[in-house]
Design brief:
The protein has helices at about 15-20, 25-35, 40-50, 55-80. It is mostly helical. InterPro entries: DUF6525.
């Protein structure tokens, strides 16, 4: 893979995706394993944290379900419009 080695910009730091996944709470990992969409650990963790996953895991899981359902509805409309 070619890279611009002469750039003076700092390289983007990339983490280990499996390590990121393994660091998630067990409830969130279980949800991700059954999710209909391929979520990144970072985006799922963001929703988890914003909806209070540490204090109320059930509420955070409901929020993840809501976000996923909304995304699926939006994608369904977009597909229907292209047919």
């Amino acid at each position: 893979m070619a890279r611009n080695l002469n750039s003076s910009l700092r390289g983007r730091r990339r983490g280990n995706p499996m390590q990121t996944y393994d660091a998630l709470p067990p409830e969130l990992r279980q949800w991700l394993s059954t999710a209909a969409l391929p979520w990144s650990p970072a985006s799922a963790r963001g929703i988890w944290q914003k909806s209070g996953g540490r204090r109320d895991p059930a509420r955070a899981l409901r929020r993840l379900d809501e976000v996923e359902a909304a995304t699926l509805r939006k994608d369904q409309v977009a597909i229907r419009d292209t047919i």
